[in-house]
Amino acid sequence: MEQRLSIVTLGTSDLGRATAFWEAMGLERKGKYGGVAFFQLNGVALAIYPFEKLAEDCGLPGGVPAGGVTIAYNTRSEAEVDAVLAEAVAAGGKLQVAAHKAFWGGYSGYFLDPDGHPWEVAYNPFFELGLDGEVILPA
What is the DSSP letter of 28? Predict the structure, then answer.
């Protein structure tokens, strides 16, 4: 696993309100992806996603992830998703959601770190990764 963070996802009870807040703070929303808002930061993306959808995606139905936050590590291939998930489990993490073809067109799975924080490991064919692993959102 390379030393990087790709996306920090914040849970919200009101996607429209949360999106308007971040836009008012000067962040520019990138693309339109239905039920999630993405903002490009310096090398990392910020995502805003409804609490219940976030919990469901993490395999924690009925429960909001610790602090309503998940962390994503994007990869360059589906095989790398599998390898990073295996590495996390070997290091003491818990496989929470096995890697699978995701409804949004990519490939992802989740592990929980030893403190229970959900990490998504994803291959997203729609998001470019720079040479240093920086996630680059499309316009």
Answer: P
- Print pLDDT tens along the chain (139 aa): 888 889 999 888 889 898 998 898 888 999 778 799 999 988 889 999 988 888 888 888 777 766 778 889 999 999 999 999 999 999 888 999 999 999 999 999 999 887 677 999 999 999 999 988 888 988 8
DSSP class of residue 68 equals G
DSSP 8-state secondary structure symbol assigned to residue 43: S
CA atoms of 77 and 114, how far apart (whole Å): 25
Q: d(Cα 38, Cα 41) in Å, to the nearest integer? A: 10
Judging by beta carbons within 10 Å of its beta carbon (0-12, 13-18, 19+), is residue 5 exposed, middle or buried?
A: middle
Which residue from 59, 51, 36 is spatially nearest to 118, judged by alpha carbons? 59
pTM above 0.85, yes or no: no
Place of tokens 């469901």: 56
H runs (alpha helix) in the chain: 15-24, 51-57, 78-90
